[in-house]
Structure formats: structure tokens, C-alpha cells
Amino acid sequence: KAGVTQTPRYLIKTRGQQVTLSCSPISGHRSVSWYQQTPGQGLQFLFEYFSETQRNKGNFPGRFSGRQFSNSRSEMNVSTLELGDSALYLCASSNRGRGASEQFFGPGTRLTVL
Amino acid sequence: GQNIDQPTEMTATEGAIVQINCTYQTSGFNGLFWYQQHAGEAPTFLSYNVLDGLEEKGRFSSFLSRSKGYSYLLLKELQMKDSASYLCAVRDQAGANNLFFGTGTRLTVIP
Question: Which residue from B50, B96, B102 is facing A42, i.e. has the nearest CB?
């Protein structure tokens, strides 16, 4: 069974640009969560999607948005990039809509903003 | 807000036992997770506790006390490959899957 895949793996952008990251969950998983990981803050929750609906959102500005498609693949978009957006962006999938006992992480997308 | 604390760094000797503590203060509680993350890699799932007590899985065990807001991860028979960051995470509500993470404990195993 294939794991969670994320594309691209690495990305370099400049301030003011926008970026779209993609996440394909494990087959059959309908819950996808996105996290930002930085050395100082650790992993911080961005948002969660289940069956194409955003169920929860973390404390990030509106420049961060996402969506989920009918095949459970998810995208997140960051507009008007800032230097502080440089981070590893991870997505995680689970096979339950709530109370999942395990979440599987993808390898992440390393975003560098210059 | 949610607050999850764990030591920043720990060092232990190959073959020994190490305990990594995690304390949490969250608005709700619906499960505590431990993940292992090697440098440059994705976190991998180690354990899940939702009820008080000890969960054992091979060389790894995890303990939870909900009344104390406390958990620990116990690693036995340490191996060099266990050098990694260990992340404690809490789910604060039953209706979702989002987790709140501590900043992680970087464990270094020395010969």
C-alpha cells in the first residue's frame, strides 16, 4: 500500500509570490491534515479536511488556505509569501473521520522563501 | 491555549533505557501520540494512549496519566538508530484529527 505522497519535495520562492502544495493520502483515507514545521515552533496545525470539507483550522493568517478534492487529494495554498513562511510543510492522513488512533505523515515539502 | 512541554535534548548510552517525559495542558483531551522523527524525514507513528496506563510495543512503551496531564515514552535497549527527535502530540477533541505537538525532544544515543 503506497504511503502519503507530497509534491513537490522542495520549492524555492521569493517574497510576494504564491505557492500551491499537493498531498495524496493513503488510498481509502479521507482525512487529511496539514502542518507547518519550523525549528523554533515545532509542528503547528494548519487545517484538516474530511470529505472535501474543512473541519478545523489552526491559528494561521488567511494567506494560508486549502482544499480537498473528491478523490481525497488535498492542496494547500500560501499567497503573498513572507520570509517567515519558510518551513517544512507536512500532511498527514488517517482512515477515520474522528478519533483516529494513528495518522500517517508524508515526507513533506521544504519551502524556502527568499 | 494548548501547552505541551517536553525536554529539548537528552543523551543516553547505547543499550541503556531512556524515559522522555511530556506534560500537557489542553482545553480537552482525546488521545496522546508519540512520533519519532529522524533528521530530514517525516514523523513516524510510535504509540497512542487514550486511557491511563502503559502501552508496550517491543522496545518502546508509552504511559499516560490523564489526571496529571503527563505521559512518558520509554525506550529500552537503546540502539544508535534511535537517535532522533521524539514528538509528543495531543488531540484535544473527539470530533477531529488535528494534533497539538510539543517542540520535540532530540535524543542522542552515544556508544
Answer: B102
d(CA B61, CA B30): 19
Which chain A residues are Cβ-neighbours of B96 within 8 angstroms?
Answer: 48, 55-56, 98
Those residues with Cβ within 8 angstroms of residue B42's Cβ, 6 or more apart along the chain or in another chain: A4, A90, A105, A106, A107, A108
Residue-level pLDDT, tens digit, chain B, 111 residues: 689 999 999 999 999 999 999 999 998 899 999 999 999 888 999 999 999 999 998 999 999 999 999 999 999 999 999 999 999 999 987 777 788 999 999 999 999
Q: Which of A42, A101, A106 sits opposite B104 (nearest CB)?
A: A42
